[in-house]
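Progress report, Aim 2. The chain analyzed during this reporting quarter is listed below.
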Amino acid sequence: MKAINHRLFDLLQSYFNAISVKSKTKLIEEGQRSKQFYFLKKGVLRGWTLHDGKEITFQFLYEEQFFCSIESFWYDKPSQYTLETLEDADLLIIDKERLLELLERDLPLLQAFNEYIIQRMLDYQKLLIGRIKDNPEKRYQKLVTTAPEIFQRVPQHYIASYLGITTVSLSRIRNRR
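Predicted structure tokens for the chain:
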């Protein structure tokens, strides 16, 4: 777990409620509002959006990561994407009102939360720049380096969608290795 996530988790852990869900559970649905902030204890999640009737995968989340639909959580707007489990998952949840209460009165928690938000912004910035600058083969290589477990835990068609290529192209890239 990154140090930022560890610190935030330590400060929040006693306030979470635990749930377990089955594979293919939609925790956040595109077009719906979500007022929960989550911590993924066990499992893999896929973030995706519909474009021209097709599901486009844009992120994967693994154990020991926090997540929420930012626009929905903070601004009470419908989520622009869906987050669903790819495996049975164990999660911790806190609702918006409770989290805001804690952030207002606990300066160390607020600082850890701000560090977490900044780190997430940097992660998304890297993802966006990688989509612009890197070809599919380089994006694949980065995925192999940063998340090798993905190939055992995530179906190939979701990985291909994430890389912006077809499953046939993904097979070709993998066979060249």
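Strands lie at 17-21, 26-28, 36-42, 45-51, 54-61, 65-67, 82-85, 89-95. The longest helix spans residues 107-133. These observations will guide the mutagenesis work planned for the next reporting period.
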